[in-house]
Design a protein that fits this description.
Layout (H helix, E strand, L loop, with lengths): L8 H12 L5 H13 L5 H5 L1 H54 L1 H31 L3 H8 L5 H21 L4 H34 L8 H10 L3 H28 L17 H27 L9 H7 L9 H12 L4 H13 L4 H22 L4 H30 L12 H18 L13 H41 L5 H11 L6 H19 L6 H29 L6 H10 L16 H15 L15 H27 L8 H4 L4 H7 L3
Helix pairs in contact: 6-7, 7-8, 7-12, 8-9, 8-10, 9-12, 10-11, 10-13, 11-13, 11-15, 14-16, 15-16, 15-17, 16-18, 17-18, 17-20, 18-20, 19-23, 20-21, 21-24, 22-24, 24-26
Length: 692
């Protein structure tokens, strides 16, 4: 048979399915692995029975599963039975509840109604409790205000009264005004009684504190005083009580510090140092300053606790009371402190006045003045002005200052009454050196003095003037006396010498002879040099002291004036000795008016004729061209720089005067016949000769 074998459709489909099966799939591999566990022999019989073998294998697996899950099945059956029993119980309970609900419906309604009424009653109770808390005092609070000793409960109750007052003010703004007024009247009764009781207690405590030197203020007393600030009248009574008690205590302590000293004699009594005025007064002032600080601290802690300490919550509530004005605290504090220190003013004043009456020396008097002024400013900062202690210190400072200036005035009057004699070397007198030394010590004291923060250093110029002005006047009197004495002696010598010399010499020869013996100095020269030496001796130590700068400038101006006067007098003496003194004005006028045509030529005047002028110029050239001692060199002037300056100014003045004469002679209008023979030396030669 030549045609291909045709397979049955079912077999063909199965074969095709087998051929299309993937042999590498995971499921197929797992199935073959499982099959290899029980398919061990590959025989024809085994292949024919493969299906049955697989089915038997599946049956055994199911039987094993049933055997393994039999215990779980039993447990589930038991749970089912219990659930059924529970459901039966729930049905029975629901039945019973239904029966009870039917029988208790009225009771539940009544319970709901009572619950609502309880809520309303509770709200009303809270309202009543709030009202009683905000508008009524409890029995314990009333007892604390009236019967018990003062304690923290008293202040809590009093604070509650203040709160009720504030709440009543709010109540008055509603339609419950009558209730608000009644409550305020009731609280006013409690409040006034409590404040009167509080005032008596505070006064008793303040009286107890007044007997102690260093009292401790309790917190309870601070709180009580803070409460009294709401009643200014009662607070004032307590403040006066404190002031009176501390006044007596402070007086007793001050007298004890003066006479007995501290406990056991340490520190020693202040009056032990009464022989040392500065320490004596300083110790008293130091004690008063320390006492003022401690008393101020005590008064602040007692009467004004808000200013220096933190207090409790109850006290803080009273610090916010609107009736109290903190701005009044400072004047009240100063009033209380001023009253406390009134008692020590008299004993302190008496002792300081005794010190001033003992006439201490200048330095101690000045130091006392500065010490009193420093403490007056310091105590004024703490205590205020217009108090008894401040007025006492101010008066004592003025008295010490007056004593100091009176001593300076007395010393100055004594110096002016007995001026010293001028020595031969024209040196300053010892009284001047003593006064300058004293002034330097006063300046050192002034520079090191204590100054309060709120004050400035006092002016020192009055001290300098009070000390140095009499010394300068004394030097001027001594110079005048020396000048007068020199004039008398000179006139005597002139009378005795002129009678013997005049027959033998002409007047010109006598003038030249006198000029060759001594420099042409006037009697004012030693006096002016003496004053210059005195002023320089005063000025030199004051250089570098800022406080004396103005007076140094004044002294410099006086020295310049004296040097200028010295130069003028010496120039006048030289010109007078040469006979040119009365002619120099004519020379000046001729230079000004010769051009007018109405001026009379100098040659026609007797004083300025060529012959008279020739003799005068010869004497002038003799002085200029003579020996080194011809012109004054001011050897007795003790400051070399001033001596050199004076010589230079004198030489320049001589040169200027000669230049005026030279120009007048050379002026054609003056008609001198041979002016160059008359004035042989031009001004530049004279200037060179004099070393200008």
């Amino acid at each position: 048979m030549g045609s291909a074998t045709v397979l049955a459709p079912g077999l063909s489909r199965k074969l095709k399915k087998v051929l299309e099966t993937r042999t590498d799939s995971a499921d197929l591999l797992a199935s073959l692995n499982t099959l290899s566990t029980f398919y061990t022999e590959n025989t024809a019989h085994a292949r024919r029975n493969l299906r049955s073998t697989i089915e038997k294998r599946g049956l055994s697996v199911n039987e094993e599963f049933l055997a393994a899950s039999s215990s779980a099945q039993q447990a589930l059956d038991q749970v089912e039975e219990e659930v059924n029993a529970l459901a039966a119980s729930c049905d029975m309970i629901a039945k019973v509840l239904g029966e009870c609900n039917a029988t208790t419906g009225d009771l539940i309604g009544t319970t709901e109604r009572l619950k609502q009424e309880l809520e309303i009653t509770t709200q009303r109770q809270e309202i009543v409790s709030c009202f009683l808390r905000d508008y009524q005092l409890s029995n314990d609070e009333i007892k604390a205000l009236r019967e018990e000793d003062l304690s923290e409960n008293f202040f809590k109750a009093l604070a509650h009264v203040h709160d009720i007052h504030a709440n009543c003010k709010v109540l008055l703004r509603t339609h419950h005004q009558r209730a608000g007024l009644d409550l305020m009247d009731m609280m006013s009764v409690y409040q006034e009684g409590a404040y009167e009781r509080l005032c008596r207690w505070v006064q008793a405590e303040c009286a107890r504190l007044g007997d102690q030197d260093n009292p401790e203020v309790s917190e309870l007393l601070k709180t009580a005083v803070r409460c009294l600030m709401a009643r200014p009248v009662l607070f004032k009574y307590c403040a006066e009580e404190v002031a009176n008690m501390r006044h007596n205590t402070l007086f007793r302590r001050f007298i004890g510090a003066l006479t007995r000293g501290g406990p056991g004699g340490l520190p020693r009594p202040i009056e032990v140092h009464a022989h040392d005025p500065l320490r004596y007064v300083g110790d008293m002032l130091g004690w008063l300053h320390q006492a003022l600080a401690s008393e101020r601290e005590l008064v602040l802690a007692l009467l004004y606790p808000d200013s220096n300490a933190e207090t409790g919550a109850i006290a803080n509530r009273f610090s916010q009371i609107p009736e109290h004005d903190d701005r009044k605290a400072d004047p009240e504090l100063k009033f209380v402190l001023g009253r406390i220190f009134e008692g020590v003013c008299r004993p302190f004043k008496i002792r300081v006045e005794q010190v001033l009456q003992s006439q201490p020396n200048f330095i101690i008097s000045y130091k006392l003045t500065n010490t009193l002024e420093f403490y007056s400013h310091t105590i004024s900062d703490l205590l205020g002005s217009e108090t008894a202690l401040w007025n006492t210190l101010l008066g004592l400072k003025d008295a010490a200052q007056k004593t100091f200036f009176d001593m300076l005035r007395t010393r100055g009057e004594k110096l002016l009454r007995y001026p010293p004699l001028v020595t031969a070397d024209l040196s300053p007198p010892p009284a001047l050196k003593e006064g300058v030394s004293m002034l330097l010590e006063l300046i050192e004291t002034y520079d090191s003095m204590m100054v309060s923060i709120s004050a400035r250093k006092p002016a020192f110029e009055p001290v300098i003037s009070a000390l140095l002005d009499p010394i300068i006047q004394m030097c001027e009197q001594a110079a005048e006396a020396h000048k007068s004495k020199g004039v008398v002696q000179s006139s005597r010598r002139n009378r005795t010498s002129s009678d013997a010399a005049q027959p033998r010499r002409s007047s010109i020869d006598a003038i030249l002879a006198n000029g060759s013996v001594a420099p042409p100095q006037t009697r004012e020269t030693p006096a002016r040099i003496f004053l210059i030496n005195c002023l320089c001796a005063i000025r030199q130590p004051l250089f570098g002291h800022e406080v004396a700068s103005e007076y140094v400038n004044k002294l410099s101006s006086m020295i310049e004036n004296h040097i200028h006067g010295l130069i003028e007098s010496e120039l006048e003496a030289i010109l007078k000795r040469c006979g040119l003194s009365n002619k120099i004005s004519l020379f000046h006028d001729s230079l000004k008016e010769v051009e007018s045509g109405s001026w009379l030529p100098l040659t026609e005047r007797d004083d300025t004729s060529p012959a008279a002028l020739s003799e005068c110029l010869k004497m002038f050239f003799g002085l200029i061209l003579g020996s080194e001692n011809t012109l004054p060199e001011f050897e007795l002037m003790q400051v070399p720089s001033l001596r050199s300056e004076a010589c230079h100014q004198l030489a320049k003045a001589i040169t200027d005067s000669y230049e005026v004469i030279y120009k007048a002679i050379m002026e054609p209008g003056n008609q001198y016949p041979d002016p160059r023979s008359l004035a042989r030396h031009p001004p530049d030669q004279i200037s060179t000769i004099l070393g200008i």
